[in-house]
Design a protein that fits this description.
Layout lengths: L9 H6 L3 E5 L2 E6 L3 H10 L2 E4 L4 E5 L4 H6 L14 E7 L5 E9 L4 E5 L4 H7 L4 E2 L4 E7 L3 H5 L8 E6 L2 E6 L8 E7 L3 H10 L3 E3 L1 H10 L33 H10 L4 E7 L10 E2 L3 E9 L4 E8 L9 E6 L2 E8 L33
Parallel strand pairs: 3-13
Antiparallel strand pairs: 1-2, 3-9, 4-7, 4-8, 5-6, 6-7, 9-12, 10-11, 11-12, 14-17, 14-19, 15-16, 16-17, 18-19
């Protein structure tokens, strides 16, 4: 069995006393202080995530647009230079092989893809080049992200510019539901960029907080909430499937769209702080795909597949957690809406840029 890979920032994470988890063949920071504190830092101010495990693919040929249009579900032709879009890669059966972000550059395209799916992605996107070693990705998310980074880029747009002294491709994308950015830079510069981000008082965040943040927004994680065993309509991703064009898997997806899916992915909220694990069964032939504790709601939350006939907000769910029935209910997504973040005592907290969140000291 091969050893897990490390991102270029691994030593810096060790210096911040991070705890780690192996995810998709990578040893990644799980939390630095606590998942709850990091989650609230993003909701109230800003947090930084090391996404060095994500892969990047590039294509520069003159026929790149035509090629990608026949491989990806979204409409590539709608993208102008400096714009990005969320899209899917499907197989011949319409199953979701991966979800990706596509960037249209001045010349060619760049795709960010999930590390665990890289080999399969390259099989289906054989004309693309793996440029993962050249790029590193950081995400800075939260309502103070623009102020602290001194950038302002619209949602699903991107610009090449200097951020805190480092040349980056700054993308108005993220995985938390907050405003913020993903910063793609040369791998040789990512250490300097991370250090400068830390100097601005932005909280380092691990994968645990990233998971709870995305679940509050009802955002899927490929490999857990959606796989090649599901089609986009079952996973609630039909809005990025353009069946008016031809791409791999479009035939089966046209049939599913006409007939309606046999299951639906829904957000749910527990009646207490119980966190149902992935795979937990739900009365009526449903199953949980992801669960986490929501520091905002102070409840367990998650995503689950249920029979379409019961996939309505407010309907109760009986979930088997370690042999005991726990109650939850289907909730509109996102589950936290636009309400302000509150502390456990119910007091609205607004962290100031001049008062950086507490962090553990570096090791000598």
């Amino acid at each position: 069995m091969s050893k897990p890979r490390h991102t270029p920032l691994h030593e810096r994470h060790l210096a911040l006393d991070a705890t780690f988890a192996e995810i998709d063949g990578w040893q990644l920071p799980y939390e630095f202080s606590s998942a709850k504190d990091e989650h609230l830092a993003v909701r109230e101010a800003a947090g930084a995530f090391d996404l060095g495990h994500l892969a990047a693919l590039a294509i520069k040929w003159s026929w790149a647009e035509e090629y990608l249009q026949t491989r990806l579900t979204n409409d590539v032709e709608r993208l102008a230079s400096g714009q990005s879009q969320y899209t899917l890669l499907t197989d011949e059966n319409g199953g979701v092989v991966d979800d990706l972000i596509l960037f249209r550059l001045a010349q060619g395209f760049l795709l960010t893809v999930n590390a665990r799916n890289l080999s399969r992605d390259l099989e289906l996107l054989s004309e693309l080049e793996d440029v993962s070693e050249d790029w590193s990705i950081l995400a800075v998310q939260g309502r103070l992200a623009s102020e602290l980074l001194e950038v302002d880029v619209e949602r699903f747009a991107f610009e090449r510019r200097e951020v805190l002294g480092v040349e980056c491709l700054v993308s108005g994308t993220g995985y938390t539901g907050e405003s913020g950015y993903e910063l793609l830079c040369n791998t040789a510069d990512v250490g300097t960029l991370w250090d400068n981000i830390m100097e601005r008082g932005i909280t380092p965040c691990g994968m645990a907080a990233r998971d709870s943040l995305r679940l509050e927004q009802g955002l899927v994680r490929h490999g857990r909430d959606v796989t090649a065993e599901q089609n986009p309509y079952e996973a609630g991703l039909g809005n990025v499937v353009k069946t008016s064009k031809n791409f791999v898997g479009v035939g089966p997806l046209r049939r599913v769209k006409r007939q309606a899916p046999s299951q639906r992915l829904v957000s749910f909220v527990m009646e207490d702080d119980t966190v149902p694990p992935s795979g937990a069964s739900i009365e009526g032939d449903g199953r949980v795909t992801s669960g986490a504790f929501s520091p905002v709601l102070e409840r367990g939350i998650g995503l689950a597949y249920v029979w379409p006939g019961v996939a309505k907000a407010g309907n109760k769910l009986e979930i088997d957690v370690s042999g005991e029935t726990r109650l939850g209910h289907i909730h509109d997504s996102p589950v936290i809406g636009s309400q302000p973040t509150k502390s456990p005592r119910g007091r609205v907290q607004r962290l100031k840029a001049s008062r950086p969140p507490h962090r553990k000291p570096r090791r000598p």
